[in-house]
Amino acid sequence: MLKMQKLGYFYTTLILLLNIPAFSEAGIKADPDYISSGLSWTTEGIPSAQVGDVLSFHRIMIGGMLEARNEKRFNQGVFPNHNWRGVATIEASLYERRMEPSLLSVYAGFRHESAHATMGIREPTEKAFDLIYDDVYRRMMLNSINVSGHVSNSSGKNTFLARVDYNFYFCSKNTPELTGSKLGSSNGVSVGAENRYRLGRNTGCYISLYDRYIVEGSDTDQGYVHVENDGQLQNILIKYPIINHVNTVVLKTGFFILFNESRREAGLYGKVLYGNPYGFVDSRDTRFVISFGIETSL
Fold first, then answer.
1. Which pTM was predicted?
2. Domains in the chain, ordered, with CATH?
3. Any idea what the Cα angle at residue 91 is, between residues 90 and 94, rounded to 5°?
4. N or C: which end of the chain has fewer CB within 10 A?
């Protein structure tokens, strides 16, 4: 609990330091790591909330976000508090080439993502995936160096964005179901595309698609993992990958309002996620989640 509180203080401080209105290249909104502030609910009424912001100057962008969310099987309160996730990122523009009306750019950067559960919320379950909520300390942390290519095209009221990332993960672990704190390395790729259309001077709509895939790493550790065997839950000692293969696809669409003086936008959206949700989730868990919410971002 103390480590989770320290993590919360770190990300809160980072966000306060970065809370300066500034221009940054638009990200892909369907990316669950898209830095924004807002509230959302699934169609089953499960809440989540995030606060985040970015700062950019010259060819450097720095951002941070802290997210809190709930799990369906636990009691629902007014504020989400079942698990916490933090994201910190820094990107530098290495190359830009403008070919009107298009812009091609290449970026390199570093991204950190970590997540923790609120301790002491154990409940009976019939799923091995749910047993990561117990009194055992479990780690989920991804550190990556990424190289990405961006393409944007603006024509009239329409703007198209696309991004492809290669990610090298190091000192990472995306298997909280595996006890132990050993870290490993792996590779991954993410692809995103978004189309925005201006409805009026300060209003518009968009549709956004994003896919992230992480390759199973070669590093393994021996630890206890909950498994289902003939309908029975067992906690067995096995050799297990530290970074497991996961895939997440997200489709998001919504409306936004631009505030020109602060270069900030706010809007409503609907989102469909299929695959392994980001954050403190068993790497073997695959979900289909429909949600809607409000958000503000630069």
1. 0.86
2. 2-297 (2.40.160.40)
3. 155
4. N
